[in-house]
Amino acid sequence: MIIGGAEDKRRDRAILSRFVELAGGGDARIVVIATASTFGQRANDRYAELFSELGAGEVAGLSPLSRQEANDPATSGRVTEATGVFLTGGNQLRLVSVVGGTRLEDALASAHDRGVVVAGTSAGASAVAAHMVAFGRSGASPKHRMIHLSAGLGLVEGVVVDQHFEQRGRWGRLLAAVALSPRLLGIGLDEDTAAIIHPDRTLEVLGRGAVTVVDGRNVVTDAHQIKGHRPMMVSGAVVHALPTGSWFDLRARSLIQPPEDRELEASE
Question: Looking at residue 204, what DSSP letter applies?
Fold first, then answer.
């Protein structure tokens, strides 16, 4: 469950409620990891309060700030027992630099493999992908050296995720990322918007904004030729703008009907 940041925490809290539901509701054992955030324990406490109000059975907070702490068996053990893990916003490079290659990363991968719901908001959303947006510049037009990618936590393969997409004008850098790596699907998440990636690699959109998917399989670009910070030519990318309720097949790279519509058609 990848969230574009600034998810609603005061009104209907639809995204956070769905996370608690997926984690098991009253039987949920949620672990919040706030390593990306400069607020650390304050961020843990805030999400613990929210998830408890939404009916989660148990919420614990972790905020390892060093690789030594992330390698502590007591830290990774909390994730081993979880039914849901929530990665806060902040700085994705801090999160991956501390957690990557440690027991905690191994525990996250094992939890994901056994079906635990892993959610990330803002920086946490970018970090779950195998290829992560490390940093970059905003702007509507793609440009050379506009975006820098690094290894993420590897929970979602074949995508690159950017967040605060509409609000911070990140269209250009996502298009540049796909031009540089056409094998990857670009996913841009608006604020208070989530993409839920189900085990069958279908993606469900939830929230008040949109999820933008950029398919660059057939792209034509001069990204490998230009130098400096000049504009980049990108032609042939396929763009999908998906509001809440939309479903998308990441394998087929195509829009699909919601499950209830498919079930209705099958019964007719």
Answer: E
Q: Which helix (H) or strand (E) holds 182?
A: none
Q: Does residue 95 register a pLDDT over 80?
A: yes
User: Which pair of tokens denotes residue 140?
Assistant: 């509507």
Q: What confidence tens digit (pLDDT) does each residue in 143-192 have?
A: 999 999 999 999 999 999 999 999 999 999 999 999 999 999 999 999 99
3-state secondary structure of 251: coil
Measured from the Cβ of residue 189, the count of other Cβ atoms closer than 10 Å reads 29
Q: How far apart are CA 169 and CA 186, in angstroms?
A: 15
CA distances from 54 to 4, 87, 101, 134, 240 (A): 20, 17, 33, 32, 32
Q: How many CA atoms lie within 13 A of 232 on its CB side?
A: 30
**Token pair listed for 124:** 């946490």
Q: Which helix (H) or strand (E) holds 74?
A: helix 73-80
Which residues are known to be catalytic?
A: 122, 164, 191
Superfamily of 1-128 according to CATH: Class I glutamine amidotransferase (GATase) domain (3.40.50.880)
According to CATH, the topology of domain 139-268 is: Rossmann fold (3.40.50)
